[in-house]
Input
Amino acid sequence: MTNARDIDADPPLRRDAERNRRLILDAAASAFAERGLGVTMDEIAQHAGVGVGTVYRRFPNKEDLIDALFVDRLDEVTQAADEGLAHEDPWDGLVWFLERSLQLQAQNQGLKELVSGTSHGRERVTVARERLVQKVRELVDHARAAGTLREDFDAFDTPVLQTMLGSVLDFSHDVSPELWRRFFAIVLDGLRARRDAPTPLPAAALDEHQLDRAMAAWKSPRR
Amino acid sequence: MTNARDIDADPPLRRDAERNRRLILDAAASAFAERGLGVTMDEIAQHAGVGVGTVYRRFPNKEDLIDALFVDRLDEVTQAADEGLAHEDPWDGLVWFLERSLQLQAQNQGLKELVSGTSHGRERVTVARERLVQKVRELVDHARAAGTLREDFDAFDTPVLQTMLGSVLDFSHDVSPELWRRFFAIVLDGLRARRDAPTPLPAAALDEHQLDRAMAAWKSPRR
DNA sequence: GCGAAACGGAGGTAGGTACTCAACTTCTGT
DNA sequence: ACAGAAGTTGAGTACCTACCTCCGTTTCGC
Output
């Protein structure tokens, strides 16, 4: 007799199909990471070395593919929040989280787009995002209660902060991938309740050539 | 005898044409200001109450229209830099400029897109932008030399700073148009060489509802 | 009242992308 | 060995968006 689980479970994939599924997942992961959620399904198929039709056989649409790929990535960010929450000093915990989160987003353009509100992704991604937001609020509230974070900073300011630093990621990614650390350090100095002298900046400023390149590549959003 | 100027000068427009030219300029100015350079020529024509053909009769293409409209706006920003340069205290001058520049960009979405590097606009706009960049460098160098601006801040960091704060403008414009002032204040605290306690934040944080709306509307750039 | 200038706006053109489908290929259990 | 189910393919479809053109019609100025 077959039980409920056997009925629900899809039959195993044929060997070639399983291999292609992996190729697609790998290609999609690296394409989304490098160039964001805007990559076309055709590009993903080409990278995977299969036809577009094959991609659509496995993943009915693009959102489903994103969903399958990014739940784990978002969980990594949530885990960073948990690690931050576990720190003894709440300020250190907040900084730990912000830095790790930004670093993950710097490594993964698609994750960045997902974290900062773009409506991409399906239910599982949305749920993961909400869990994250909750934890980040705790993190901020603790740091403020401890008195290291300036008092007038609000938990609802954090997504704006992330968007703001995320734009530095976009701006300079191709030209100086670590530049965000400079501005993160500046912002942190601005977030501390008290401070005597600035914390040294961790990355080099852009030079003229890099700046030109970044500005030329920068496209503003909106409709 | 007709001199060189008469030969170069276009014959005056017919009365109706002149009237429409103004209608188009006005409609384009407010559309670009409110919704950015992405507005379509058809929208502009409709706002002006004329046909698209009429717009194209006066302005051969969209770039020319942008050019005609934005040279003056960019000069306003440059003027703010000059005013900043005229301040007695170089730090106050820098803050004056940044605040005024951001404020102008907050009022004019199109200006914001033009200032932060998008390749829109033709030669006259490009020239105006370069003049501006030069002045901003002076401003930064003075403030650093005076010792109020942190030493490790570089003149080439300024466009990144503007992009960063510009993203706050994009993020919250529809929901809380003054929010940028909060983050501007935070960043300024991070830019000061020394400081005891945080400067009070000038705008309210977003509430949950506003944040949801902003996140939903936020689209990331890239291809 | 005539000719030149200006107008309007439907449609041409170009570019881009998610997704489909019918003909073909590969796998697997017997 | 082979049947037929499962899988593959990629040109094609459907759809969108936005700049710009064209030409029949209207308005202006002399």
